[in-house]
Amino acid sequence: MKAWTQRQQRSGDTTSPASLNDELRSAASQIATLGRDELPIQCVSDANLVSGALMDTWASALWPGVSGSEGEQQAVRDSGVQTRMWEAVTFQASIGGWQDAGGAVTLSGFKGGQLFVEWSGNGYVNNLFADTLHTFDPGVPRYLNLRILIDGVLLVERRGTSYHDHWRIFGTAAFPPGDLTMQLQWRINEPGPDDATVIASTSYHILQAHLYSMKYLAIGRWR
Fold first, then answer.
1. Which residues pair with 217 in a beta bridge?
2. Which of 19, 100, 168, 185 could serve as a FRET partner for 93 with CA atoms 20 to 30 Å apart?
3. End-to-end CA separation in angstroms for the chain
4. pLDDT digits (tens, 9 = 90+) for 137-152
5. In angstroms, rounded to a whole number, what is the distance separating the alpha carbons of residues 216 and 200?
6. Which among 157, 151, 185 is positioned nearest to 171, based on CA atoms?
7. Where are the strands (E) in the chain, listed by range?
8. DSSP 19
9. Does the pLDDT at position 10 exceed 60?
């Protein structure tokens, strides 16, 4: 309980002019620092909260939403492949390393707290030359490596699919308030000594990897 110590009687039955303000400030600070279990019943409910007061979500349909190639990665798109193939990753067009699947996504209005992000899609990796004469790790397939960055900080990184399959990665962490920048990135293995890069009879580039049907979901929780 509050001990009333500020407003003490002085000589001549007078009090300090600041004593009442001291008591009011002390009481206000007590109310502002109540825990959840100390708040009045129904103090926090859907009826008296604005949208986004406790949490917010950011979600996509097919992402990136580039017309004609919705949901497909946009970092590397080689048109020198056969017409029945995706315009996607080849060793001729890829610069290696981590690539953004699409443009950076801004999570506007993040109020500080826990952030959960999920990214999913389908992936293809060419494994025809995973086991060859001069391959240093024969029989080990190539994988589509995936990661999520928030403001340049790694949220989650996983070894994704190999060959042709569906994938889904997710992670969660606490972040300070303010708009956040989310990057969804992929990376494939570098070419080996025996990898074929073109179809000899036509000189078409050989497709090495692709991501498509991608979507993301982000949930921020403030309390």
1. 59, 118
2. 168
3. 27
4. 666 778 899 999 999 9
5. 39
6. 157
7. 55-59, 99-100, 105-107, 113-125, 145-150, 153-159, 164-175, 180-187, 209-221
8. H
9. no
- Other beta carbons within 10 Å of 50: 6
Q: How far is CA 38 from the centre of its chain?
A: 34
**Interatomic CA distance for residues 117 and 146, integer angstroms:** 13
Architecture of the domain whose range is 56-221: Sandwich (2.60)
Amino acid, single-letter form, for residue 17:
P
Q: Report residue 142: phi and psi, to 5°.
A: -80, 150
Return the amino acid letter for 77: R
Residue 165 has pLDDT above 50, yes or no: yes
CA distance 73 to 70: 9
List, for residues 122-131, the tens digit of each pLDDT value: 999 988 877 7
pLDDT at position 2: 47
Nearest to 57 by CA among 110, 7, 104: 110
Residues 70, 137: Cα–Cα separation, whole Å: 36
Amino acid of residue 131: D
